[in-house]
């Protein structure tokens, strides 16, 4: 029987999922926290001619995690925008999204839904350039977090439909709104902040690449401080989520503990009553036993208990005062056997039972 366990199935599910989510969020938070710590420790280097010399002296000609800023410059031909002739860039992202309204039968409204139909990313090799001739080649830019790119083109193609389409929409619960076409670009000349591993390659070129130790690789069109604060903010959000889920788990446990304690209290109270009635019974037994022992076959004892007998079993003496009605009509074992907690005489709900002390 489920009642014997301190936790109900639903509570176990709630507890399990809140603990699991809390653990997951805490894991993400720890990872983010580590990223923020690494960002805080990362030295910010100036992109100038000294950089190659600095790297030449570094062990393994490599600096593991550094911040560097410069302007985007393509190594060969840049990418040309498909929609704006004048725009040139080094990373280009073309996305086609479908927008439609979907009937939500729970909320009984139409809700917006978006789906990526098609996405294409193009990239050409590029450098970050600083003062003078100094340049850093950016490797694997698509593996980096970011950069946020400039929206070059955005166009919404409205869906058009006839009468039969309307019937189809009514039946399927889906109304196409149209398609959104966007082009984003990391433009030539944009200011870029890179955080990653810096190496001096055999061709004496300085290159920025994803860190070998698995730290997060960043490319950002904002400045470093913005990037750092953004990561810190994300860490705080994950921590708050983890704490909320842990608290929810604790709340479920407390709730179950409270319920369990209440049930124990009821059990103790019942046990206490039972013992009290038992004591009464034995006292009554002791009081009558000498008389029955002396009187021997005293048959006149029979009618006396009859007028005081329990209305249920007609055998034991009445020993309970039922509250709130106050009826004294049954013995304790019959009270315990009552199918519902209502008085057998007046049907009022029994809120409490008190032993009857006869002197
Ligand atoms: Zn009885
Ligand atoms: Zn009653």
Automatic annotation (TrEMBL):
<keyword id="KW-1133">Transmembrane helix</keyword>
<dbReference type="InterPro" id="IPR013083">
    <property type="entry name" value="Znf_RING/FYVE/PHD"/>
</dbReference>
<keyword id="KW-1000">Mitochondrion outer membrane</keyword>
<dbReference type="GO" id="GO:0005741">
    <property type="term" value="C:mitochondrial outer membrane"/>
</dbReference>
<keyword id="KW-0863">Zinc-finger</keyword>
<dbReference type="Pfam" id="PF13920">
    <property type="entry name" value="zf-C3HC4_3"/>
</dbReference>
<dbReference type="GO" id="GO:0051094">
    <property type="term" value="P:positive regulation of developmental process"/>
</dbReference>
<keyword id="KW-0808">Transferase</keyword>
<dbReference type="Pfam" id="PF12483">
    <property type="entry name" value="GIDE"/>
</dbReference>
<feature type="transmembrane region" description="Helical">
    <location>
        <begin position="12"/>
        <end position="29"/>
    </location>
</feature>
<dbReference type="GO" id="GO:0031647">
    <property type="term" value="P:regulation of protein stability"/>
</dbReference>
<dbReference type="GO" id="GO:0061630">
    <property type="term" value="F:ubiquitin protein ligase activity"/>
</dbReference>
<keyword id="KW-0472">Membrane</keyword>
<dbReference type="InterPro" id="IPR022170">
    <property type="entry name" value="MUL1-like"/>
</dbReference>
<dbReference type="GO" id="GO:0016567">
    <property type="term" value="P:protein ubiquitination"/>
</dbReference>
<dbReference type="GO" id="GO:0008270">
    <property type="term" value="F:zinc ion binding"/>
</dbReference>
<protein>
    <recommendedName>
        <fullName>RING-type E3 ubiquitin transferase</fullName>
        <ecNumber>2.3.2.27</ecNumber>
    </recommendedName>
</protein>
<feature type="domain" description="RING-type">
    <location>
        <begin position="310"/>
        <end position="347"/>
    </location>
</feature>
<dbReference type="GO" id="GO:0022603">
    <property type="term" value="P:regulation of anatomical structure morphogenesis"/>
</dbReference>
<dbReference type="GO" id="GO:0009893">
    <property type="term" value="P:positive regulation of metabolic process"/>
</dbReference>
<dbReference type="InterPro" id="IPR051652">
    <property type="entry name" value="MDM2_MDM4_MUL1"/>
</dbReference>
<feature type="transmembrane region" description="Helical">
    <location>
        <begin position="236"/>
        <end position="257"/>
    </location>
</feature>
<comment type="pathway">
    <text>Protein modification; protein ubiquitination.</text>
</comment>
<keyword id="KW-0862">Zinc</keyword>
<keyword id="KW-0812">Transmembrane</keyword>
<dbReference type="InterPro" id="IPR001841">
    <property type="entry name" value="Znf_RING"/>
</dbReference>
<keyword id="KW-0479">Metal-binding</keyword>
<keyword id="KW-0833">Ubl conjugation pathway</keyword>
<keyword id="KW-0496">Mitochondrion</keyword>
<feature type="region of interest" description="Disordered">
    <location>
        <begin position="284"/>
        <end position="303"/>
    </location>
</feature>
């Amino acid at each position: 029987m489920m009642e014997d366990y301190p936790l109900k199935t639903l509570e176990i599910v709630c507890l399990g999922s809140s603990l699991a989510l809390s653990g997951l969020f805490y894991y993400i938070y720890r990872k983010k926290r580590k990223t923020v710590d690494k960002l805080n420790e990362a030295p910010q280097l100036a992109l100038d001619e000294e950089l190659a010399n600095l790297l030449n002296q570094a062990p393994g000609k490599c600096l593991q995690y550094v911040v560097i800023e410069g302007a985007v410059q393509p190594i060969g031909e840049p990418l040309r925008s498909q929609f704006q002739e004048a725009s040139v860039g080094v990373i280009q992202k073309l996305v086609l999204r479908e927008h439609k309204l979907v009937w939500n039968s729970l909320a009984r409204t139409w809700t917006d839904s978006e789906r990526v139909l098609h996405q294409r990313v193009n990239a050409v090799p590029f450098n970050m350039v600083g003062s003078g001739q100094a340049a850093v080649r950016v490797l694997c830019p698509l593996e980096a977090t970011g950069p946020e790119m400039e929206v070059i083109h955005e166009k919404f193609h409205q869906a058009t439909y006839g009468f039969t389409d309307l019937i189809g929409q009514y039946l399927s619960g889906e109304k196409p709104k149209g398609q959104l076409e966007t082009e984003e670009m990391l433009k030539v000349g944009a200011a870029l902040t890179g955080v990653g591993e810096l190496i001096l390659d055999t061709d004496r070129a300085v290159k920025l690449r994803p860190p070998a130790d698995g730290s997060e690789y960043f490319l950002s069109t904002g400045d470093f401080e913005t990037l750092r604060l953004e990561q810190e903010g994300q860490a705080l959000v994950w921590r708050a989520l983890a704490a909320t889920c842990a608290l929810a788990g604790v709340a479920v446990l407390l709730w179950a503990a409270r319920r369990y304690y209440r049930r124990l209290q009821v059990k103790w109270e019942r046990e206490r009553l039972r013992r009290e009635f038992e004591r009464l019974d034995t006292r009554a037994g002791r009081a009558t036993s000498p008389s029955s022992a002396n009187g021997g076959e005293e048959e006149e004892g029979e009618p006396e208990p009859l007028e005081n007998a329990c209305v249920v079993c007609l055998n034991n003496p009445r020993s309970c005062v039922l509250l709130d009605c106050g009826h004294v009509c049954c013995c304790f074992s019959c009270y315990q056997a009552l199918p519902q907690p209502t008085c057998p005489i007046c049907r009022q709900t029994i809120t409490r039972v008190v032993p009857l002390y006869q002197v």
